[in-house]
């Protein structure tokens, strides 16, 4: 694994001067970060009045009783304790609050090794059976959806984490993952006792690099001398990295061996392995997508899950279904970011209560535009 450069994060613009407090211990620092056991040098949090956030769906809730909703999950499906479960929560909320009938909902899941033809066939079957709208969960459906959307021009489709150029009947549901991950970086910097943290990415693709970029930027903004290392489980083209807890554990063990005592993952179901490693080795972990402290499938690790970056796929799926019921998709944001609660962080378990005001100060600075977070890694 390679260490991230410790250059200043040019993408993070903080108008107030970040004065340093809590100097490093007398052992000093190394060019790659801090010396073993050194305290993190904490920057003064930005000062900005917190702005209000809002959901993109406002006003009277529409009646979605007549809708037939198709939903096709990414690898792992319901029960992954992460990305897919967040999407599932969106459809469950639509059933509870919008009147969508369970009998009018059909769900399907991808499997490792699915070809484009298989993914297209899954989408085509939902559309041909009259499900409208159809939601594809995950960027891996983009190519297949481009084909199928053209074949069913009167069916409304949405895709999470991607767009389909030229397809007017496809709505992209995309997120500012880098903004939520910035807050994870701040949390990690404040909770690390060794001033050393790690990132585990499922697959080395631009989407997951957004999580990496934000995490790095947030940790560096909060503690300029912090050591940050990363590990991707699989290269682009091999999506098994999102569903391999064993690889997640091996990668996490390596990061912990290198000194990291707080780990943040963006690895889907592989995150279960990250949590297992952290628990076994006395480290802490930050989850992703859903509030993983509350997830029953990782309940045995909840004591070391200090927070989760909330990528509100549930909000996006729910808002999309509500907009479809109103037959007005123009109400949806171009990106689900901090300003519309499209991303955020969880406080379940009370493990970040002591630093909540600090994290919220950084959040407010991002919402106000005082801090700009790049979605591209610095190295």
UniProtKB/TrEMBL annotation:
Cellular component GO terms held in the UniProt record: plasma membrane
One Pfam family linked to the record: Bmp
Record-linked Gene3D superfamilies: 3.40.50.2300
Region (Disordered): 31-61
Key words of the record: Cell membrane, Lipoprotein, Membrane, Signal
Subcellular location: Cell membrane
Residues covered by the ABC transporter substrate-binding protein PnrA-like domain: 69-346
Membrane topology: Lipid-anchor
Family listed: Belongs to the BMP lipoprotein family.
Name under which the protein is recorded: Basic membrane protein A
